[in-house]
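Possible regression after last week's pipeline update?

I re-ran a chain I had predicted before the update to compare outputs. Posting the input and the new output here so someone can diff against the archived version. Not blocking, just want to make sure nothing changed silently.
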Amino acid sequence: MIVLKIIGIVIAAVLALIVLVLSVRLRIFAEYSEIDTHVYLQWLFLKIPLYPFEKKEKKAEEKQEAPALAEGEKAEEQPVGEPEETVEETPAQPEEGLEEKKEEGKPQVNLLKVIYDSHGVDGLLLIVKRLVSYIGTYVGKLTRTLVIDELYVDVRCSKGDAAETAIYYGEICSALFPMMGALVSKYKVRKYDLNVYPDFLAKHSSASFAVNIHMYPIYVISISVSLVIKLLFRVVLGFIAKLVVALVKGNKSSQNTEKNESVKNK
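New output (post-update):
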């Protein structure tokens, strides 16, 4: 009994530690500008760069160099007039019997035809609709777990000409500000700033942004597990069951036709 209690306490402590670790925030930082772009992930004491990828220095392979000839030594020369012996390579002959085995093999089952016969168009459309709806709900729940701590966007509008720059500045403002409002109203955004300004002296436009997002891994894992369970029990198992039933019916019908043909022959 004491051993079982100790094992139970250890298992409970490990599970509590896993839950505690997964409850720590996972942060994603992204910065973009014309000069450089950085994206990295931070969780606990780990800082993982996502972009740019850190390329590991590959060790150069040692090239086999011919040993230098000492002074006075000369390379051996082939005698003139004696051509090198060439060995004629005989083409590899195909193995005997392979083609006959392929021809004698049983015909392969057309899986697409079996799927179509078992489900039909309506059944396939129903499976696709379920799959799309489950993935859509998963993405929606996943985006709701995201929290945008900081979002800063800086856009400089310039077209080289004063009139064109003013028109372009109005177009950018009419496009970006509604997008920022929709983003702030739909998701959790704590700090944000959108700075759009015209520059009549610059030769080209530019943009930069910085974003800081965090999420909790335990929420992501729970949502992913629920999606896998739904797909397994409501899509995959149902599909396999209908497919097995269709195969059994097909085998029975083929056996019945064979029996009928044998009876007619008799």
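Follow-up from reviewer: compared with the archived run. Confidence is low (pLDDT under 50) at residues 56-66, 69-78, 98-107. Marking as no regression found.
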